[in-house]
Amino acid sequence: MADPAIVAAPAIVAAPADPATTAGSLHSRAARVLEGNWTGTSTVPSRGLYPHQWSWDSAFIAIGLRHLSPLRAQTELETLLDAQWGDGRVPHIVFNPSVPLDAYFPSPDFWRSSTAGRAAGAPRTVQTSGIVQPPVHALAAWLVHRADPGLSRARGFLPRVYPRLAAWHRYLLHRRDLGGGGLASVVHPWEQGMDNSPCWDAPLARVTPAPARSFRRADLDHGAPEDRPTDLDYGRYVRLATDYRDGGYADGTGDFAVEDPAFNALLIASEHALARIAHELGAPGTARHARAERLTAALVERLWDPAEGLFFCRDVRGGGLIPERGVSGLIPLLLPALPRDVTGALVGTASGPHFGLGGPARLVPSYDLTGESFDPHRYWRGPAWFNTAWLVERGLRLHGERARADALREDFLSTADTSGFAEYVDPYTGDACGAGDFSWTAALTLDLLHEPVGQAVTPVGIGTFDMGDKGNKVDKVDMRDRGEDRG
């Protein structure tokens, strides 16, 4: 699907308005990170630790790249979608065949996608993982289109990606509704993206870990062990992935199934974006908006705890909400149809002692500052991450919390600067953890640099439905042969 000419796309040229300013320097350095991590058709999260293409990373990267090269941003998403499976899933890793197998684990020979995933329609010519990541992609596609609608229409970008994005959502809404309440479930902690969050401890405790001798952790070659998931956690991740693979990547049979608020909030936001894309292509989008609002209602019904003022994960296998406060529970701030009392309570929780927004914490910690499992350095058990900070900032701005959003934006930019575009940071000090020159940190820095301070926005294109760009439409997409609904 990707345009062959894209491989030779010109290098990004960073051109801030005033290179002498701090913002101009930050803009230039962020652009250089993305240029350095570009492979020719996609962007790696980091050169050492993550040498392949990751799914939700590419979506966030495209959101930032659109300010530098809309062509490259389109290519980022097209390359990922070229690896989509026949059942609609978008795999969480697309492997680069030129990278040695021992550079990352689990490697292609572990996932065996082309053989173990044959029944699910895994591609034969591209090696991928068999699990997924949060569905930020339609959101990214709409923003990338809006960055240069003329280029997008000339290349037929939306007509090519829309059927694939619709199939991706259909997979999640039908194959992954394991709890029967309308929400999508994740079947592995890696799918939600917050790998070792304490929110997973209880459902993971049911999983017998794979023997330590059965795998080698390449991640420890690039990061301090005290910053990474434990060997016990990793053994459980490997066991879950092995069982899923050996079952032909069939959904609904494993011991781990969790409805996560962030995963579903991003699915809902992307449903709104798909509605706008459908309208741009000459098809009705109102049914998709209605579906997004129904999913929002299901999210509140199933995952909202009014006494705690936070959304919680639901353990589908064990039953009930998981009483751990993770940053995932704040991400539904993105959604325009949340009841006002819910948004007010979320803002209060974000600003209170558990997350410390505007107080002792830099950005937003990944886990409850007062929780027994809090660790300021260990991956998703406390450190602050830039992608979740960006999502919370967008949500605050959507719901009129301009002062809080502006303060978070300022902290984001200063911390990205001083940390060297770190993968994540200590939530109190802002000290860098994990990989440096991390792509989504640089990309989302660029996005916030292009956002005027103090402005009220309809963030990430998900607000109340309107007709959007009223310029010339591309030809209406014929979706009949793809089995696409017209919602």
Automatic annotation (TrEMBL):
Organism encoding this protein: Streptomyces spongiae
Protein name: Mannosylglycerate hydrolase MGH1-like glycoside hydrolase domain-containing protein
Domain Mannosylglycerate hydrolase MGH1-like glycoside hydrolase: 50-441
Sorted UniProt keywords: Glycosidase, Hydrolase
GO biological process: oligosaccharide metabolic process; protein N-linked glycosylation
This protein's record includes keyword Hydrolase: yes
Top-level taxon of origin: Bacteria
Family per record: Belongs to the glycosyl hydrolase 63 family.
GO molecular function ontology, one term from the record: Glc3Man9GlcNAc2 oligosaccharide glucosidase activity
Secretion signal span: none
InterPro entries, sorted: 6-hairpin_glycosidase_sf, 6hp_glycosidase-like_sf, Glycoside_hydrolase_63, MGH1-like_GH
Organism placement in taxonomy: Bacteria, Bacillati, Actinomycetota, Actinomycetes, Kitasatosporales
Residues spanning the membrane: none
